[in-house]
Write a structure and sequence with these properties.
The protein is 43% helix and 20% strand. It has 221 residues and is of the alpha/beta class. A seven-stranded mixed β-sheet has the order 3-2-1-4-5-7-6, with helices on both faces. Helix 2 packs antiparallel against helix 5, helix 3 packs parallel to helix 4 and helix 6 runs parallel beside helix 7. Bound molecules: S-adenosyl-L-homocysteine (SAH), 3,4-dihydroxybenzoic acid (DHB) and magnesium ion (MG). The site of magnesium ion has 3 residues, from loops. Magnesium ion binds next to loops.
């Protein structure tokens, strides 16, 4: 009942405030055909990420967790002409689907999808002197989220915005002893954000088509 209401309202506000988007709809279709899990951000959440990127005038974006490139394309569309986005994806099949979707969305010139475990590709970025990034979206495996946060701060400058997805998990984080390592990863991440004097943060809880979840949003001082 509650989920039905959230989904109806998500559909309503999206229909009122966003125009039809055949390109992004085709991304979701191609993901489904390719057998990717439907765990992309929702349209309203993708638009939200896009707005944050524009509000911060982000020209260099890092994403950890590409899937089929749905959030990637929302973010890439916010970039200026010379802006660039790097997205990290472990699964080669996901990366292939994403590169194809990104090309079909006309964003191939701006976006590079790096295949590999982010714990391997993040140090490579640092070694190559890539960064700092203006905006970093963390949305990969949640058990490694605390380490991704450390890398995100390392690849930041004062003013960089870091956003972590899926930090509420329908309230599962209320159980401090929860056995799911993803819940523990999120709890450690929230604690690390609070303990880091360089980060100012808040958590935006979300309800909608994807259930009850939330974004942690931090700025690096
Ligand atoms: N940001 C996407 C959804 C990402 S889903 C969107 O909203 O459209 C999470 C992705 O992280 C999956 O594709 C998964 O394969 C990837 N992933 C899981 N473990 C990873 C790791 N260790 N390194 C990089 N990516 C990983
Ligand atoms: C899952 C991952 C996500 O990033 C998400 O937004 C929803 C679900 C998952 O792994 O189940
Ligand atoms: Mg997510």
């Amino acid at each position: 009942m509650t989920q039905h209401l959230w989904t109806q309202l998500d559909d309503l506000v999206s229909a009122k405030t966003m125009s039809a988007d055949p390109i992004l709809e085709s991304v979701l279709l191609s993901n489904r055909v390719a057998g990717l899990p439907a765990i992309d951000v929702s349209p309203a959440q993708g638009k939200f990420l896009h707005l944050v990127a524009r509000m911060t005038a982000a020209a260099r974006i890092l994403e950890i967790g590409t899937l089929g490139g749905y959030s990637t394309i929302w973010l890439a569309r916010a970039l200026p002409d010379k802006g660039r986005l790097i997205s990290l994806e472990f699964d080669p099949h996901h990366a292939t689907v994403a590169r194809n979707n990104i090309a079909n969305a006309g964003q191939a010139e701006k976006v590079k999808v790096l295949t590999g475990a982010a714990l391997d590709t993040l140090p490579q970025l640092a070694e190559q002197g890539i960064g700092p990034f203006d905006l970093i979206f963390i949305d990969a495996d949640k058990d490694n989220m605390p380490t991704y946060l450390d890398w995100a701060v390392r690849l930041s400058r004062p003013g960089t915005v870091i956003i972590c997805d899926n930090v509420i998990r329908e309230g599962a984080i209320l159980d401090a002893g929860h056995p799911d390592p993803r819940v523990q990863g999120v709890l450690q991440t929230l604690a690390a954000i609070g303990a880091n004097p360089r980060l100012s943060a808040s958590v935006l809880q979300t309800v909608g088509a994807k259930g009850h979840d939330g974004f942690a949003i931090a700025i690096v001082d």
